[in-house]
Design brief:
Number of helices: 26
Helix content: 40-55%
Strand order of the largest sheet: 11-12-13-14-15-16-17
Structural class: alpha/beta
Strand content: 5-15%
Shape: globular
Number of strands: 17
Largest sheet: 7 strands, parallel
Distance between the termini: 32 Å
């Protein structure tokens, strides 16, 4: 068993329970598996997200302050400061992220210092950030580090220790410097790097360039929310909606689109262009404006009359292909549709000169065209028009349908919370169950469990279930494991050990460079194992960071269908894996989906809702998703898959 939580006050006023645990807890990559990278590479995503928060400043937001504390921890490590000092900031940030109480109230009542891990010095800094919107210590620290080094942290495989070494040994201060040093074969000569690391850095630099100007759906959503709030609060706005690819729940977006109905566009334009997080007004007209937000995300606003609003919203929601298909249907019915309205075309009249068809909503537009309403997530021209015409659109799964999840890590491996804390968070969501899936023994960097500890955890899970049952609680933990698929398709544990668990998820975390045939055979062989219940993040992709490994997903889905196995929709923001484009295919073959957050902390469980959006985009109904079932139904399904009934 792992020891009790470590209480680290300001500047590390405590000891950690050993080097490995400290490295994992102090610098873990929250919600994303390590995938065979070095410990120094693990914190990359967490730090990238921290820098994102600081680009959209709102110092009354605890997450914004937590992001800055994360940044301070990173910068201290880059400067070679005492490790415990860096960890103190990381733990304080974690405390704020999971804080249930109002931060302002804690500060006003003098109770901030009572929080675990927040000593006097940190209490003072957090208060300064909250009350003044600035922190001199942070600004001075940031000024002492070349700005370009923060960009280097975005390269997969580079954590603060490696960036520090590059800065000190090769005078790397920018991404351009880093690329030049790799091309001159200088990086491979540094201790702790080597030729393989140099190659991976070059690949990472190439991906950064490839993905420039793109943003994860959740990042764009967080940037869009305050804009929407400001527009809704504007008295001149009659109604306003988010449009574009973000409304369609695309996993990656390039910009934000807003449509507002108003009788006074000048006032609305002024509100929009004067937002606190607007870095630059790109252009502004009477009814259109484009701004660049802090962080590089462009936002566009169209102001229209209330009568034009549904048409503009539908048009600017897209997709382009969906709109083209709609317009063709209009032409077939002697009508014309654009962002201004729906018009009947008379036999002897010019195009667009006919009678305007009154529509108060998007649903009215579809109804006038003889179609059922198409949810924004489905508007990708993947058969939704024909299905809407035939009355065959699916009733899509919703967050309210979710009763649990099946991919969660605790302190037993690389998670940050205990079994009981994870269970409490699940129960607070109204869930009936939670599947625990620690890493297996091959995932050494992620704290994978050996056989003995895996069974010890399963015993603890069953003891907790007995305790809850005795108290009349309708909640249970399922004892599982995220088992590594080895290079030849064998599993990381023997079958007789896996048979003692409630379910088994298999994932690939290493050996991404195999060719398609070998990688596919590897995954299919794992699926064929009778002990296996479901497949975790089946392509291994990290959005805007790493392409998926080469695998024939059609063959994987076919194998899952043939053997009655479940495929995960891993809704960690950088994964969204399996991709939404494949879920209709899997659904039609009878493959069940498990929507999982891959949670490494209790507060991440609620983010399963992100996966629901992608499941909807993949045409999934409640009955297509495992975790919409009751606990009893889930137990029967898991037993049936493994032939134990």
């Amino acid at each position: 068993m792992r020891g009790a939580p470590v209480d680290i006050g300001a500047f590390g006023e405590a000891q950690l329970h050993g080097e490995d645990q400290g490295a994992r807890e102090g610098g873990k990559r929250r919600g994303v598996d390590v995938d065979g990278q070095s410990p120094d590479a693990k914190p990359g995503l967490e730090w990238t997200n921290a820098f994102f928060f600081s680009k959209f400043p709102d110092m009354s937001n605890k997450d914004t302050i937590a992001g800055i504390l994360h940044e301070i921890g990173v910068m201290l490590e880059m400067k070679g400061e005492n490790r415990f000092k860096s960890l103190a900031y990381t733990h304080a940030a974690r405390t704020l992220e999971t804080l249930a109480e109002d931060l302002g109230e804690l500060i006003r009542t003098g109770r901030l210092g009572e929080l675990k891990g927040i000593g006097a010095a940190l209490c003072e800094k957090i208060t300064e950030l909250y009350e003044t919107g600035k922190l001199q210590y942070y600004e001075e620290l940031k000024a002492s580090i070349p700005e370009g080094l923060f960009d280097c942290l975005k390269v997969p495989g580079l954590g603060p220790k490696k960036v520090k070494a590059l800065w000190e040994k090769l005078d790397v201060k920018t991404l351009a410097d880093l690329k030049m040093c790799c091309e001159r074969n200088l990086v491979s000569t540094l201790a702790g790097f080597g030729e393989k690391t140099q190659i991976k850095i070059l690949e990472g630099l190439g991906n950064l360039e490839k993905y420039r100007g793109q943003f994860l759906w959740i990042e764009a959503w967080k940037a869009a929310e305050p804009v929407m709030d400001s527009l809704r609060d504007c008295p001149a706005v009659r109604r306003v909606e988010l449009a574009g690819s973000l409304r369609r729940k695309k996993e990656v977006v390039r910009d934000l689109d807003f449509v507002a109905a108003t009788d006074d566009p000048k006032i609305v334009m002024k509100v929009f262009t004067s937002l606190a997080n607007v870095k630059q007004v790109v252009n502004q007209g009477e009814t259109k404006a484009s701004v660049m937000l802090e962080g590089g995300l462009q936002a566009d606003l169209r102001c229209v009359s209330d009568a034009e609003f549904p048409f503009a919203l539908a048009y600017f929601t897209g997709s382009k292909e969906h709109n083209v298909a709609l317009r063709q249907r209009c032409l077939d019915q002697r009508m014309k549709l654009n962002e201004y309205g729906l018009f009947r075309i008379g036999k002897n009249r010019g195009e667009g000169s006919g009678e305007k068809v009154l529509c108060r909503s998007e649903a009215d537009i579809y109804r006038k065209l003889g179609l059922d309403y198409v949810e924004p997530e489905l508007r990708e021209n993947t058969g939704e028009i024909d299905a809407a015409a035939a009355g065959e659109l699916p009733v899509l799964v919703t967050e309210k349908d979710i009763r649990g999840s099946f991919h969660a890590h605790t302190r037993w491996s690389d998670g940050s919370d205990t079994l009981e804390q994870m269970a409490e968070a699940a129960q607070a969501l109204g869930w009936e169950y939670l599947g625990i899936t620690e890493h297996s023994r091959s995932s050494v960097v992620a704290g994978g469990l050996d056989a003995k500890r895996l069974l010890e955890q399963a015993d603890e899970i069953r003891e907790l279930n007995k305790r809850w049952e005795g108290r009349g609680k309708r909640f249970r933990l399922f004892a599982g494991c995220e088992v590594d698929v080895l290079g030849d398709g064998r599993l990381d544990y023997p079958d007789d050990l896996l048979a003692q668990l409630d379910f088994v998820m298999v994932s690939i975390h290493q050996g991404f460079s195999s060719d398609e045939a070998r990688q596919t055979a590897r995954l299919v062989k794992a699926i064929e194992n009778p002990m296996v219940t479901m497949v975790g993040h089946p392509t291994g992709r990290l959005l805007l960071e790493r392409e998926q490994y080469r695998v024939d997903l059609n063959a994987v889905i076919e194998a899952a269908a043939r053997h009655g196995k479940i495929i995960e929709l891993n809704c960690t923001p950088v994964r969204m894996d399996m991709d939404w484009r494949w879920w209709k295919n899997a659904r039609d073959r009878g493959v069940l989906c498990a929507i999982n957050r891959d949670a490494h902390a209790a507060d991440q469980l609620a983010e399963v809702g992100w996966g629901v959006q992608i499941a909807r985009k993949g045409w999934l109904r409640a009955k297509d998703v495992l975790n919409t079932r009751t606990g009893g139904e889930v137990e029967k399904i898991l037993r049936r898959i493994r032939g134990t009934r």
